[in-house]
């Protein structure tokens, strides 16, 4: 049988949400849920595979905003409080379900999970789980790369190269500060690419990035190896295109593995089912229902009728789906190998939060796939860096403007619901560039003021806010964040134009928005 390669890349990202002025803040739960259901379980899987001597190597992109939150002392302590609260809820649920065996064992499962999370977080990682990912890179099991500083959808800023460069430069600086190593790869947020972006990435010594499938199928010339090999974009940088067909088996909301009827249903949660008074200690507000993570029902069907979740049945299906995935790869390898002059590469990028958080069994599926690949003589798990070392000569071509979003371009991030934001952000970028030219060497108080202005623009550029608005979820919060960042920037601009600094406001705002502490505001220079 012919040989094939699998390039598995996971992208871990969350928007920057930190609110020290509140004791608890609803949107901070996005981070705590991801730590509990994705990052810590995934670390356990990776560590178990390493301990068992299973050979594996994959790529993990960690966005700078996520790295900043995971290394923040306030958010670390708040996560420990969150996990302790969830453990308390689990113990309360075990008592409530004592005479309901099916529910009781699920409550116990969640109790054990949160107990393990607390132990790992506090004792193993000393509340900084980035250390776990660093350790896995040091032993050669992970390749860590970065993404844009605040996960901006870069194609919508191609007329503002200073802003794109700021996103790239600051991302690399942040990655080095957290992982002590310069990344060779770059995750384009939402796989958003435009011709010319490769030149900016290459100027920062980035060697490869990932794109959507049609970025290569619609490239400036016919790509002879299709999406089954990277293309050389010139400037010593390569592009790897996503294998859409294989990805959909895992990704599709209609017929992908996660929607199987025996898997745990994500949306049915006791936070919406049980009495408010019972849940009150675990909710943020008695008027606001929210997810607790305690979910007792299987997908079953699209109707309201649900069956109780059975972990043993689900785990059996995980093994079946892992085997099916390997079978599809082997079959595709046989077909593609007939027409290629080298082993085909199947590039499979996924959001990391799909595994465990959105698809509860996804982390187990990932472990099964890696173990099966380790015993497979025909399919090899390989990173982009390893592939380029083995095959340094690749066809030259320039990818097409593209993203992996709905409809394949920019419609998710600029539509009738969110297009209003760009005139404000673009104007702010122009004004920031103006401030750099007018005040090129500011230090002390005015320098801090200008540094914070740069932070506010970068945070306004985050792709998360237009995505949330377009998607119709947490719209009010996304709009508030956008308006807040634009307002804060304009306040700095107007104060600088009057040659004054609001010291009290600056101190308060810096305390809230403390990411990128060493930012140089001159990254918005036109040079």
What structural class results from the helix and strand content? Answer: alpha/beta
- Helical proportion, percent range: 40-55%
Query: Given this structure, which CATH class of the domain at 4-67 and 139-255 and 346-352 and 377-407 is correct?
Result: Alpha Beta
Under the CATH scheme, the architecture of the domain at 4-67 and 139-255 and 346-352 and 377-407 is Alpha-Beta Barrel
Strand percentage lies at 5-15%
Quick one: CATH superfamily of the domain at 4-67 and 139-255 and 346-352 and 377-407? Answer: Glycoside hydrolase 38, N terminal domain
Task: Give a written overview of the molecule.
- This protein has helices spanning 29-51, 64-70, 73-96, 101-124, 130-138, 161-179, 197-203, 214-217, 244-251, 270-273, 276-279, 311-337, 362-374, 384-390, 420-438, 444-460, 464-471, 475-497, 503-512; strands at residues 4-12, 58-62, 142-147, 185-187, 208-211, 231-232, 238-241, 345-351, 379-381.
- With 527 residues, the chain is an alpha/beta fold.
- Among the domains are: 4-67 and 139-255 and 346-352 and 377-407, 7-stranded beta/alpha barrel; 414-524, Up-down Bundle (immunoglobulin/albumin-binding domain-like), CATH 1.20.1430.10.
- Strands 1, 2, 3, 4, 5, 6, 7, 8 and 9 form a nine-stranded mixed β-sheet that branches.
- A hairpin with a 5-residue loop joins strand 6 and strand 7.
- Helix 12 crosses helix 13 (362-374), helix 16 packs antiparallel against helix 18 (475-497) and helix 17 runs antiparallel to helix 18.
- 45% of the residues are buried.
């Amino acid at each position: 049988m012919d040989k094939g390669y699998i390039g598995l890349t996971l992208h871990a990202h969350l928007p920057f949400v930190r609110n020290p002025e509140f004791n608890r803040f609803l949107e901070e739960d996005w981070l705590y849920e991801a730590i509990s259901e994705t990052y810590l379980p995934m670390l356990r899987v990776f560590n178990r595979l390493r301990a068992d001597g299973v050979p594996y190597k994959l790529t993990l992109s960690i966005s700078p905003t996520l790295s900043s939150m995971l290394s923040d002392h306030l958010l670390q302590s708040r996560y420990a409080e969150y996990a302790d609260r969830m453990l308390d809820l689990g113990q309360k649920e075990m008592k409530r379900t004592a005479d309901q065996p099916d529910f009781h064992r699920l409550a116990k499962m969640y109790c054990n999970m949160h107990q393990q999370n607390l132990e790992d977080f506090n004792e193993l990682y000393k509340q900084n789980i980035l250390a776990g990912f660093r350790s896995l890179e040091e032993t050669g099991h992970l390749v860590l790369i970065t993404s844009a500083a605040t996960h901006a959808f870069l194609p919508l800023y191609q007329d503002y190269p200073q802003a794109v460069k700021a996103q790239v430069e600051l991302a690399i600086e942040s990655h080095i500060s957290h992982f002590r190593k310069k990344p060779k790869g770059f995750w384009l947020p939402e796989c958003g690419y435009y011709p010319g972006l490769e030149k900016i990435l290459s100027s920062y010594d980035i060697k490869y990035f990932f794109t959507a499938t049609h970025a290569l199928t619609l490239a400036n010339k016919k790509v002879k190896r299709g999406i089954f090999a990277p293309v050389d974009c010139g400037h010593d940088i390569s592009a790897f295109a996503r294998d859409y067909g294989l990805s959909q088996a895992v990704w599709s909301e209609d017929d992908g593995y996660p929607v199987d009827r025996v898997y745990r249903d994500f949306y049915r949660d006791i936070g919406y089912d049980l009495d408010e008074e019972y849940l009150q200690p675990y909710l943020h507000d008695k008027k606001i229902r929210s997810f607790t993570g305690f979910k007792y029902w299987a997908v079953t069907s699209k109707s309201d009728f649900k069956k109780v979740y059975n972990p043993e049945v689900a785990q059996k299906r995980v093994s079946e789906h892992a085997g099916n995935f390997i079978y599809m790869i082997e079959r595709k390898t046989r077909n593609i190998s007939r027409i290629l002059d080298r082993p085909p590469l199947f590039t499979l990028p996924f959001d990391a939060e799909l595994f465990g958080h959105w698809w509860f069994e996804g982390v187990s599926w990932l472990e099964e796939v890696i173990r099966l690949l380790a015993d497979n003589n025909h399919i090899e798990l390989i990173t982009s860096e390893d592939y380029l070392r083995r095959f340094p000569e690749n066809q030259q071509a320039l990818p097409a403007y593209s993203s992996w979003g709905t409809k394949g371009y920019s419609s998710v991030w600029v539509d009738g619901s969110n297009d209003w934001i760009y005139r404000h952000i673009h104007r702010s970028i122009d004004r920031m560039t103006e401030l750099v030219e007018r005040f090129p060497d500011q230090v002390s108080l005015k320098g801090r003021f200008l540094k914070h202005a740069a932070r506010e623009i970068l945070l306004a550029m985050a792709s998360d806010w237009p995505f949330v608005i377009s998607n119709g979820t947490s719209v009010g919060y996304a709009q508030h964040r956008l308006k807040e960042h634009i307002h804060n920037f304009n306040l700095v601009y107007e104060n600088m134009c009057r040659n004054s600094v609001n010291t009290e406001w600056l101190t308060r705002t810096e305390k809230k928005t403390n990411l990128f502490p060493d930012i140089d505001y001159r990254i918005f220079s036109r040079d």
